[in-house]
Amino acid sequence: MELIEAIILAVLAASTPLLIAATGELVTERSGVLNLGVEGMMIVGAACGFAGAWLTGSVFVGTLCGIVAGTMMSLIFALMALGLAVNQVATGLALTILGVGLSGLIGAGFVGERITPAVHLAIPGLTDIPLVGRVLFGEDGFVYVSIALVIGVWWFLYRTRAGLILRACGDNHVSAHALGYPVLRIRTFAVMFGGACAGLAGAYLPLAYTPFFIPGMTAGRGWIALALVVFSSWRPGRLVIGAYLFGAVTILQLHAQGWGIGIPSQFMSALPYLATVIVLVLLSRARSGGSTAPAALGTVFVPDR
Prior knowledge:
Largest sheet: none
Number of strands: 0
Shape: globular
Number of domains: 1
Helix content: over 70%
Order of helices and strands: HHHHHHHHHHHH
CATH superfamily: ABC transporter involved in vitamin B12 uptake, BtuC
Number of helices: 12
Distance between the termini: 65 Å
Radius of gyration: 20 Å
Strand content: under 5%
């Protein structure tokens, strides 16, 4: 029972940054914008989040710093891809390269430092319930925020008029513009939301997952978050399943090495990314009715003057 509980807790911890970052990217892509800079925004959020927490001694301040950093990075993308109509794929890749270098500069003075990680919820009587107590009532705030984000995004996209307008911009920006909706403004807010979520996901890593900062600590999680959006067919509910599935694969390779299974450690470390490629290939082959992606995804929009 203790082993099962430990594995479940580890899967939740590994899945949380994937779920937060993928939720933000899902909103961005539903508006018709493809931002491949999630990895860059996450690593800058991690560096700024740790710096803020270390300087102030507050995890909450560090979290805000990570969110602001991710949002500011997303505004750079919005300026280039939306304001100047630059190719979105190239801009996103450039944003990732910029983020990796910028995070190294920001975090250079904090490598090796440690902070007190985010506290976990503790409800007397409930947290002590075997197996489910710590899973449901003993997590840190980031885990509960990730679930709340998915529920909130689902409600926004499918139960509000604003969500319908955002999805319309992603499916046919010309028609949305003809109806009088400010497509570029809507997409800018969607990009900012995606950046804030990426910054929050990055901040989670040094503030709760591992209470220290090292360069490149996102380790490709931003790319997995991008793949999760495709895996979920741009639906928030499926995003939860995908995030926890890939989190479980990550934890599986760690436990497999601990159990002494005779498989090269390099292969086990590559297993989460190999699983990402396999899932994407299977999904592309299984969709006989065409793509479920927003029709205008990645298409540059320049409104008529």
